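User: Run a structure prediction on this.
Assistant: Running it now.
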Amino acid sequence: MQIPFVSSQGASLGIEWELELVDLETRQLRSGATEILAEMSPGGVEHPKAKHELLESCIEVITGVSQTVEQAMADLAATVDDVREQADKRGLGLMCSGSHPMTDPTTQTISPKPRYQQLVDQMQWLARDLQIFGVHVHVGVRSPDKVIPIVNALTTYIPHFLAISASSPYWVGHDTGLASARSKVFERLPTAGLPFQLSGWPQFEDYMETLISTKTIGSIKEVWWDIRPHPTYGTVELRICDGLPTLGEIGMVAAMSHCLVDTFDREIDKGYTLPMPKGWVVRENKWRAARYGLEAEVISGEHDVTQPIRESLRELVKGLSPAAERLGCTEQLGLVLEVIEGGASYQRQRAVAAASGGDLTAVVDSLLTEFATGERTVLPTQEAATATTGVPGAAGAVS
Protein backbone atom coordinates (compact mmCIF):
# COMPACT_ATOMS: atom_id res chain seq x y z
CA MET A 1 0.00 0.00 0.00
CA GLN A 2 1.49 3.30 -1.10
CA ILE A 3 0.70 6.33 1.05
CA PRO A 4 1.64 9.59 -0.68
CA PHE A 5 3.31 12.11 1.61
CA VAL A 6 2.79 15.71 0.56
CA SER A 7 6.20 17.07 1.50
CA SER A 8 6.39 20.55 2.95
CA GLN A 9 8.77 23.08 1.45
CA GLY A 10 9.86 24.15 4.92
CA ALA A 11 9.07 23.78 8.60
CA SER A 12 5.50 25.05 8.35
CA LEU A 13 3.35 25.00 11.48
CA GLY A 14 -0.25 24.23 12.43
CA ILE A 15 -1.95 24.01 15.84
CA GLU A 16 -5.18 22.42 17.08
CA TRP A 17 -6.61 23.56 20.46
CA GLU A 18 -9.56 21.71 22.04
CA LEU A 19 -11.75 24.08 24.06
CA GLU A 20 -14.20 23.14 26.80
CA LEU A 21 -17.65 24.74 26.94
CA VAL A 22 -18.48 25.42 30.59
CA ASP A 23 -21.82 26.41 32.10
CA LEU A 24 -21.05 29.60 34.02
CA GLU A 25 -23.65 28.80 36.70
CA THR A 26 -22.86 25.16 37.46
CA ARG A 27 -19.20 25.17 36.28
CA GLN A 28 -19.92 21.83 34.60
CA LEU A 29 -19.36 21.01 30.94
CA ARG A 30 -22.44 21.78 28.85
CA SER A 31 -23.35 21.03 25.24
CA GLY A 32 -23.35 23.86 22.77
CA ALA A 33 -20.95 23.02 19.95
CA THR A 34 -23.56 22.35 17.28
CA GLU A 35 -25.42 25.59 17.95
CA ILE A 36 -22.25 27.67 18.14
CA LEU A 37 -20.70 26.17 15.01
CA ALA A 38 -23.96 26.62 13.09
CA GLU A 39 -24.00 30.28 14.08
CA MET A 40 -20.39 30.60 12.91
CA SER A 41 -21.17 28.91 9.57
CA PRO A 42 -23.59 31.14 7.63
CA GLY A 43 -25.18 29.50 4.63
CA GLY A 44 -24.27 26.06 5.90
CA VAL A 45 -20.61 26.44 4.88
CA GLU A 46 -18.49 24.79 7.58
CA HIS A 47 -16.22 27.17 9.43
CA PRO A 48 -12.65 26.49 8.27
CA LYS A 49 -11.05 26.97 11.69
CA ALA A 50 -13.62 25.80 14.26
CA LYS A 51 -14.70 22.16 14.30
CA HIS A 52 -16.71 19.55 16.15
CA GLU A 53 -14.91 17.19 18.48
CA LEU A 54 -16.15 13.99 20.13
CA LEU A 55 -18.25 15.78 22.75
CA GLU A 56 -20.89 18.46 22.23
CA SER A 57 -19.19 20.37 25.05
CA CYS A 58 -15.99 20.80 23.05
CA ILE A 59 -14.99 22.89 20.05
CA GLU A 60 -11.62 22.48 18.36
CA VAL A 61 -10.03 25.61 16.94
CA ILE A 62 -7.30 25.18 14.34
CA THR A 63 -4.87 27.38 12.49
CA GLY A 64 -4.18 27.59 8.81
CA VAL A 65 -0.68 26.83 7.58
CA SER A 66 1.60 29.18 9.50
CA GLN A 67 5.30 29.93 9.12
CA THR A 68 5.97 31.09 12.67
CA VAL A 69 4.67 30.41 16.16
CA GLU A 70 3.63 34.04 16.50
CA GLN A 71 1.56 33.82 13.33
CA ALA A 72 -0.12 30.62 14.51
CA MET A 73 -0.95 32.14 17.90
CA ALA A 74 -2.56 35.17 16.26
CA ASP A 75 -4.58 32.86 14.01
CA LEU A 76 -5.83 30.88 17.02
CA ALA A 77 -6.68 34.03 18.97
CA ALA A 78 -8.88 35.36 16.16
CA THR A 79 -10.91 32.14 16.00
CA VAL A 80 -11.18 31.93 19.79
CA ASP A 81 -12.68 35.43 19.76
CA ASP A 82 -15.35 34.24 17.31
CA VAL A 83 -16.16 31.20 19.46
CA ARG A 84 -16.22 33.31 22.63
CA GLU A 85 -18.76 35.70 21.11
CA GLN A 86 -21.19 32.86 20.49
CA ALA A 87 -20.46 31.13 23.81
CA ASP A 88 -21.19 34.35 25.73
CA LYS A 89 -24.68 34.48 24.23
CA ARG A 90 -25.40 31.06 25.71
CA GLY A 91 -23.99 31.57 29.20
CA LEU A 92 -20.98 29.43 28.38
CA GLY A 93 -17.37 30.08 29.30
CA LEU A 94 -14.29 28.79 27.53
CA MET A 95 -11.36 27.02 29.11
CA CYS A 96 -8.86 24.31 28.35
CA SER A 97 -7.34 21.62 30.54
CA GLY A 98 -6.52 17.97 29.98
CA SER A 99 -9.64 16.96 31.91
CA HIS A 100 -12.55 18.80 33.49
CA PRO A 101 -12.11 18.65 37.28
CA MET A 102 -15.70 17.64 38.09
CA THR A 103 -17.93 16.64 35.18
CA ASP A 104 -18.93 12.99 34.83
CA PRO A 105 -18.42 11.73 31.25
CA THR A 106 -21.72 9.82 31.42
CA THR A 107 -23.57 13.15 31.47
CA GLN A 108 -22.11 14.28 28.15
CA THR A 109 -23.65 14.20 24.68
CA ILE A 110 -21.67 12.79 21.76
CA SER A 111 -21.26 14.96 18.67
CA PRO A 112 -23.73 14.17 15.86
CA LYS A 113 -20.90 13.86 13.34
CA PRO A 114 -21.00 10.30 11.86
CA ARG A 115 -17.29 9.63 12.51
CA TYR A 116 -17.79 10.12 16.25
CA GLN A 117 -20.94 8.06 16.37
CA GLN A 118 -19.01 5.31 14.59
CA LEU A 119 -16.15 5.60 17.07
CA VAL A 120 -18.50 5.13 20.03
CA ASP A 121 -20.20 2.19 18.32
CA GLN A 122 -16.83 0.52 17.79
CA MET A 123 -15.06 1.39 21.06
CA GLN A 124 -18.07 1.56 23.39
CA TRP A 125 -17.14 2.54 26.97
CA LEU A 126 -13.58 3.42 25.97
CA ALA A 127 -14.90 6.14 23.65
CA ARG A 128 -17.71 7.32 25.93
CA ASP A 129 -15.11 7.93 28.65
CA LEU A 130 -12.97 10.20 26.44
CA GLN A 131 -13.84 13.42 28.22
CA ILE A 132 -10.33 14.69 27.62
CA PHE A 133 -8.84 17.68 25.84
CA GLY A 134 -5.49 18.23 24.18
CA VAL A 135 -3.25 20.34 21.99
CA HIS A 136 -1.84 19.03 18.71
CA VAL A 137 1.04 20.65 16.84
CA HIS A 138 1.87 19.93 13.18
CA VAL A 139 5.33 20.72 11.83
CA GLY A 140 6.15 20.40 8.14
CA VAL A 141 8.75 17.87 6.98
CA ARG A 142 10.54 18.13 3.64
CA SER A 143 10.59 14.45 2.62
CA PRO A 144 8.76 11.20 3.51
CA ASP A 145 12.15 9.54 4.03
CA LYS A 146 12.71 11.82 7.02
CA VAL A 147 9.37 11.34 8.74
CA ILE A 148 9.85 8.05 10.57
CA PRO A 149 13.39 8.86 11.79
CA ILE A 150 12.05 12.18 13.11
CA VAL A 151 9.11 10.47 14.85
CA ASN A 152 11.48 7.95 16.43
CA ALA A 153 13.84 10.68 17.62
CA LEU A 154 11.01 12.79 19.02
CA THR A 155 9.93 9.98 21.36
CA THR A 156 12.87 10.95 23.56
CA TYR A 157 11.01 14.17 24.36
CA ILE A 158 7.58 12.73 25.13
CA PRO A 159 8.14 13.17 28.90
CA HIS A 160 9.28 16.76 28.34
CA PHE A 161 6.14 17.71 26.45
CA LEU A 162 3.91 15.84 28.88
CA ALA A 163 5.49 17.22 32.06
CA ILE A 164 5.39 20.85 30.93
CA SER A 165 1.77 20.57 29.66
CA ALA A 166 0.28 18.26 32.31
CA SER A 167 -3.11 19.69 33.30
CA SER A 168 -5.38 16.79 34.23
CA PRO A 169 -4.91 15.94 37.93
CA TYR A 170 -8.67 15.60 38.58
CA TRP A 171 -11.23 13.14 37.27
CA VAL A 172 -14.94 13.35 38.17
CA GLY A 173 -14.29 15.30 41.36
CA HIS A 174 -11.35 13.26 42.63
CA ASP A 175 -7.62 13.87 42.66
CA THR A 176 -6.11 11.05 40.61
CA GLY A 177 -2.64 11.48 42.10
CA LEU A 178 -1.37 11.92 38.53
CA ALA A 179 -0.17 15.05 36.81
CA SER A 180 -1.76 13.87 33.55
CA ALA A 181 -4.72 11.53 33.86
CA ARG A 182 -5.66 12.42 30.29
CA SER A 183 -2.63 10.64 28.85
CA LYS A 184 -3.57 7.40 30.61
CA VAL A 185 -7.25 7.63 29.62
CA PHE A 186 -6.45 8.21 25.96
CA GLU A 187 -3.87 5.47 25.56
CA ARG A 188 -6.50 2.84 26.41
CA LEU A 189 -7.70 3.03 22.80
CA PRO A 190 -6.09 0.23 20.79
CA THR A 191 -4.48 2.56 18.22
CA ALA A 192 -3.52 5.36 20.62
CA GLY A 193 -0.49 5.91 22.83
CA LEU A 194 3.18 5.56 21.99
CA PRO A 195 4.14 5.21 18.33
CA PHE A 196 5.78 2.02 17.13
CA GLN A 197 9.44 2.45 16.33
CA LEU A 198 9.48 1.65 12.63
CA SER A 199 12.41 1.33 10.22
CA GLY A 200 11.14 3.82 7.66
CA TRP A 201 8.27 4.96 5.45
CA PRO A 202 7.87 1.58 3.65
CA GLN A 203 7.31 -0.19 6.98
CA PHE A 204 4.81 2.51 7.97
CA GLU A 205 2.93 1.83 4.73
CA ASP A 206 2.99 -1.93 5.42
CA TYR A 207 1.65 -1.42 8.93
CA MET A 208 -1.17 0.85 7.75
CA GLU A 209 -2.08 -1.65 5.02
CA THR A 210 -2.38 -4.39 7.65
CA LEU A 211 -4.63 -2.27 9.86
CA ILE A 212 -6.89 -1.23 7.00
CA SER A 213 -7.09 -4.63 5.28
CA THR A 214 -8.01 -6.32 8.57
CA LYS A 215 -10.64 -3.61 9.23
CA THR A 216 -8.87 -2.53 12.42
CA ILE A 217 -9.19 1.04 11.14
CA GLY A 218 -11.01 2.71 8.28
CA SER A 219 -8.25 5.20 7.52
CA ILE A 220 -4.85 6.18 8.85
CA LYS A 221 -6.51 9.11 10.66
CA GLU A 222 -7.68 6.53 13.22
CA VAL A 223 -4.13 5.87 14.42
CA TRP A 224 -3.91 8.30 17.33
CA TRP A 225 -0.29 7.96 18.34
CA ASP A 226 1.30 10.50 20.68
CA ILE A 227 3.47 11.44 17.70
CA ARG A 228 2.41 10.44 14.21
CA PRO A 229 3.03 11.20 10.53
CA HIS A 230 0.26 13.12 8.77
CA PRO A 231 0.76 12.38 5.06
CA THR A 232 -2.02 14.69 3.79
CA TYR A 233 -0.55 17.74 5.50
CA GLY A 234 3.07 16.71 5.02
CA THR A 235 3.74 17.01 8.74
CA VAL A 236 4.79 15.27 11.89
CA GLU A 237 1.97 15.75 14.40
CA LEU A 238 2.78 15.91 18.12
CA ARG A 239 -0.35 14.91 20.07
CA ILE A 240 1.15 14.18 23.48
CA CYS A 241 0.31 17.47 25.23
CA ASP A 242 -2.57 17.91 27.65
CA GLY A 243 -4.91 20.79 26.96
CA LEU A 244 -3.33 24.08 28.02
CA PRO A 245 -5.26 26.97 29.56
CA THR A 246 -3.37 29.96 28.14
CA LEU A 247 -2.41 30.99 24.64
CA GLY A 248 1.12 31.64 25.88
CA GLU A 249 1.52 28.00 26.91
CA ILE A 250 0.19 26.93 23.51
CA GLY A 251 2.95 29.00 21.94
CA MET A 252 5.44 27.37 24.30
CA VAL A 253 4.76 23.78 23.19
CA ALA A 254 4.47 24.92 19.57
CA ALA A 255 7.92 26.46 19.82
CA MET A 256 9.37 23.26 21.31
CA SER A 257 7.77 21.25 18.49
CA HIS A 258 8.84 23.65 15.73
CA CYS A 259 12.45 23.78 16.92
CA LEU A 260 12.86 20.05 17.44
CA VAL A 261 11.37 18.96 14.11
CA ASP A 262 13.24 21.59 12.11
CA THR A 263 16.50 20.71 13.87
CA PHE A 264 16.09 17.00 13.13
CA ASP A 265 15.14 17.71 9.51
CA ARG A 266 18.32 19.75 9.04
CA GLU A 267 20.50 17.17 10.78
CA ILE A 268 19.33 14.52 8.31
CA ASP A 269 20.28 16.90 5.48
CA LYS A 270 23.78 17.06 6.98
CA GLY A 271 24.07 13.26 6.84
CA TYR A 272 23.52 12.56 10.54
CA THR A 273 21.62 9.51 11.76
CA LEU A 274 19.02 10.56 14.31
CA PRO A 275 19.04 8.80 17.70
CA MET A 276 16.29 6.33 18.57
CA PRO A 277 15.74 5.68 22.28
CA LYS A 278 15.00 2.25 23.67
CA GLY A 279 11.30 1.44 23.59
CA TRP A 280 11.12 0.50 27.25
CA VAL A 281 12.80 3.76 28.24
CA VAL A 282 10.24 5.75 26.25
CA ARG A 283 7.39 3.90 27.94
CA GLU A 284 8.83 4.31 31.43
CA ASN A 285 9.57 7.98 30.92
CA LYS A 286 6.06 8.69 29.69
CA TRP A 287 4.66 7.06 32.81
CA ARG A 288 6.98 9.06 35.07
CA ALA A 289 5.92 12.33 33.44
CA ALA A 290 2.23 11.38 33.63
CA ARG A 291 2.56 10.51 37.31
CA TYR A 292 4.95 13.17 38.61
CA GLY A 293 4.91 15.94 36.00
CA LEU A 294 7.71 18.42 36.61
CA GLU A 295 8.82 16.44 39.67
CA ALA A 296 9.71 13.41 37.51
CA GLU A 297 13.15 11.87 37.31
CA VAL A 298 13.53 10.57 33.76
CA ILE A 299 15.91 7.98 32.36
CA SER A 300 18.48 9.53 30.04
CA GLY A 301 21.84 8.84 28.49
CA GLU A 302 23.45 5.72 27.12
CA HIS A 303 24.00 4.29 30.57
CA ASP A 304 20.40 4.75 31.69
CA VAL A 305 21.06 7.27 34.43
CA THR A 306 18.25 9.41 35.75
CA GLN A 307 17.91 13.17 35.57
CA PRO A 308 15.29 15.58 36.93
CA ILE A 309 12.95 16.54 34.11
CA ARG A 310 13.31 20.21 35.12
CA GLU A 311 17.05 20.01 34.52
CA SER A 312 16.54 18.20 31.22
CA LEU A 313 14.03 20.82 30.08
CA ARG A 314 16.47 23.61 30.88
CA GLU A 315 19.12 21.84 28.82
CA LEU A 316 16.64 21.38 25.99
CA VAL A 317 15.77 25.07 25.90
CA LYS A 318 19.46 25.96 25.79
CA GLY A 319 20.14 23.43 23.04
CA LEU A 320 17.22 24.65 20.93
CA SER A 321 18.08 28.34 21.29
CA PRO A 322 19.80 28.60 17.88
CA ALA A 323 16.79 27.00 16.20
CA ALA A 324 14.42 29.29 18.10
CA GLU A 325 16.35 32.34 16.95
CA ARG A 326 16.27 31.08 13.36
CA LEU A 327 12.52 30.34 13.51
CA GLY A 328 11.57 33.50 15.39
CA CYS A 329 10.20 31.83 18.54
CA THR A 330 12.82 32.65 21.18
CA GLU A 331 10.26 34.34 23.43
CA GLN A 332 7.80 31.46 23.23
CA LEU A 333 10.48 28.82 23.89
CA GLY A 334 11.69 30.83 26.86
CA LEU A 335 8.31 30.40 28.52
CA VAL A 336 9.36 26.83 29.34
CA LEU A 337 11.70 28.24 31.98
CA GLU A 338 8.95 30.42 33.45
CA VAL A 339 6.55 27.46 33.74
CA ILE A 340 9.26 25.34 35.36
CA GLU A 341 9.63 28.00 38.04
CA GLY A 342 6.02 29.17 38.29
CA GLY A 343 4.21 25.85 38.04
CA ALA A 344 2.56 23.79 35.33
CA SER A 345 -1.24 23.73 35.08
CA TYR A 346 -1.66 20.58 37.18
CA GLN A 347 0.27 22.27 40.01
CA ARG A 348 -1.70 25.48 39.71
CA GLN A 349 -5.00 23.60 39.82
CA ARG A 350 -4.03 21.70 42.94
CA ALA A 351 -2.84 24.90 44.61
CA VAL A 352 -6.19 26.58 43.98
CA ALA A 353 -8.03 23.53 45.32
CA ALA A 354 -5.92 23.50 48.48
CA ALA A 355 -6.50 27.21 49.09
CA SER A 356 -10.27 26.78 48.69
CA GLY A 357 -10.59 23.78 50.99
CA GLY A 358 -10.93 21.33 48.12
CA ASP A 359 -13.59 23.28 46.22
CA LEU A 360 -13.16 22.23 42.60
CA THR A 361 -15.50 24.94 41.35
CA ALA A 362 -12.72 27.30 42.36
CA VAL A 363 -10.37 25.30 40.14
CA VAL A 364 -12.78 25.68 37.22
CA ASP A 365 -13.00 29.41 37.91
CA SER A 366 -9.20 29.68 37.88
CA LEU A 367 -9.04 27.86 34.54
CA LEU A 368 -11.72 30.13 33.08
CA THR A 369 -9.77 33.16 34.31
CA GLU A 370 -6.47 31.91 32.94
CA PHE A 371 -8.03 31.31 29.54
CA ALA A 372 -9.76 34.70 29.46
CA THR A 373 -6.80 36.76 30.64
CA GLY A 374 -3.83 34.72 29.44
CA GLU A 375 -2.32 35.08 32.94
CA ARG A 376 -1.25 31.97 34.83
CA THR A 377 -2.22 31.39 38.46
CA VAL A 378 0.66 32.37 40.73
CA LEU A 379 1.91 29.75 43.18
CA PRO A 380 3.28 31.04 46.50
CA THR A 381 6.70 29.41 46.19
CA GLN A 382 7.98 26.26 44.56
CA GLU A 383 8.66 24.78 48.00
CA ALA A 384 5.18 25.54 49.30
CA ALA A 385 3.57 24.31 46.13
CA THR A 386 5.08 20.84 46.22
CA ALA A 387 4.70 18.24 48.92
CA THR A 388 6.86 15.14 49.08
CA THR A 389 4.28 13.28 47.01
CA GLY A 390 4.49 15.87 44.23
CA VAL A 391 1.02 17.20 45.04
CA PRO A 392 0.90 21.00 45.46
CA GLY A 393 -0.10 22.56 48.71
CA ALA A 394 -1.24 26.10 49.47
CA ALA A 395 -2.31 28.37 46.65
CA GLY A 396 -1.25 31.82 45.66
CA ALA A 397 -3.40 34.55 44.20
CA VAL A 398 -4.93 34.30 40.77
CA SER A 399 -3.47 37.02 38.63
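DSSP finds 15 helices and 13 strands in the chain.
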